[in-house]
Amino acid sequence: MPLQLPPGPVMLDVAGTVITPEEQDRLRHPAAGGVILFRRNYQSPEQIIDLVASIRATRPGLLIAVDHEGGRVQRFRDGFTRLPPACRYEATGDIDLVEKSGWLMAAELGAIDVDFSFAPVLDVECGVSQVIGDRAFGTEPETVTRLAGAFTQGMRRAGMAAVGKHFPGHGGVVEDSHLALPVDPRPMKELEQRDLKPFKALLSQGLEGIMPAHVIYREIDTSPAGFSPYWIQKVLRQQLGFDGAIFSDDLSMAGAAYAGGYVDRARLALNAGCDMVLVCNAPGAAAEVLDALTDLDADPQRQFRLERMRGRFPIDRQALLASPEWREVSGRIARLTETET
After folding, report:
1. Is the whole model's pTM more than 0.90, yes or no?
2. Helix (H, G, I), strand (E, B) or coil at 33
3. Distance CA 50, CA 242 (A)
4. How confident is the model at residue 341 (pLDDT cuts 50, 70, 90)?
5. Among residues 13, 123, 184, 249, which one is catalytic?
6. CB 168 within 8 A of CB 225
């Protein structure tokens, strides 16, 4: 019988379109808590359904996630509705389409038994970022709040929890934290007046998850937000009252190297207050992190927060694709994205 363990604190990836015996062993490790899927894991809807089912059979209880925002960050494409980048919604003035796009994204993923997408992006684009850009819903906090809030409502209507990223805001730095460790020189007052506003607003609406940024806000703290007790415990938990799940950004990113080796990165992020750490594209490091965290004490509050991230509504894929709402919304999105390359 497969192991019936609660999810541990580590989210892993798998290399291909099927899981190998070695990967099955890693997924059965007590410290494993989830799997994040990438474009390399996808060939067709039928294949991804089989892959997800094999992960579920190997270790019931794992959370399964994907980055599926739309635009350039959408892992599954052929056989899925091609979603526009978030920046495209503002010009339409169609808040109903934004809500229904969130519903459609979540429903299509729910129909293959994926629990959640790491979405929406709550960063406010400042015109300088190499990695955010058109992934942001707008250049003003009020726009981001309104559109991301509608998108999140749609996700929730389809039974999917939302993860706002990248707290407290990645839009004001030039560097891409996949490649470097960005440093934001702005004071807290400026962040509060701009970047933090969408996070505060969506937290008040019941946001279930947060992903902190691999960014140093040097006027406030010397540690990147994802490794910072100040940002995670004092600001996010205490001042803002956030009681949802906190996921580290990928620990294999260059912005995470600040914390040392992979085990040091994982321990520092967890000690700072993250509930789950992501270790992607580095299977050897993932195995090392899993073994190092075997002694981690069980935390009932962490388990409760992670359980809230599970997909809530079973969705039959064929019934979804035949539904009037899916047909209507996918057609409207197709018209919006027909100029996208």
Report:
1. yes
2. strand
3. 36
4. very low
5. 249
6. yes
* Catalytic site includes residue 178: yes
DSSP 133: G
**Which residue in this structure is represented by tokens 């067709």?**
44
pLDDT at 1 over 50: no
CB-CB contact of 279 with 252 (8 Å):
yes
The residues near 308 (Cβ < 8 Å, ≥ 6 apart) are 161, 208, 244, 245
Q: What is the amino acid identity at position 166?
A: H
Beta-bridge mates of residue 66: 37, 117
Model pLDDT for residues 22-58, shown as the tens digit of each residue: 999 999 999 999 999 999 999 999 999 999 999 999 9
Residue type, 39: R
* Percent of the chain with pLDDT strictly greater than 90: 86
3-state helix, strand, coil split of the chain in percent (to 5) is: 45, 15, 45
Per-residue pLDDT tens digits for 128-164 = 777 899 999 999 999 999 999 999 999 999 999 999 9
From the list 50, 67, 176, 178, the catalytic residue is 178
Which residue has 């981690």 as its token pair?
A: 296
Residue with tokens 């030039």: 174
249 belongs to the catalytic site: yes
Closest Cα to residue 315, out of 156, 118, 108, 56?
108
- Using an 8 Å Cβ cutoff, are 45 and 317 in contact? yes
Is the pLDDT assigned to residue 174 strictly greater than 80?
no
Of residues 81 and 341, more confidently modeled: 81
3-state secondary structure 247-294: EEEECCCHHHHHHCCHHHHHHHHHHHCCCEEECCCCHHHHHHHHHHCC
Question: Sign of the C-alpha dihedral, residues 321, 323, 327, 330?
Answer: negative
Q: Which amino acid is at 33?
A: G
Please give the distance of CA 255 from its chain centroid, rounded to a whole number: 17
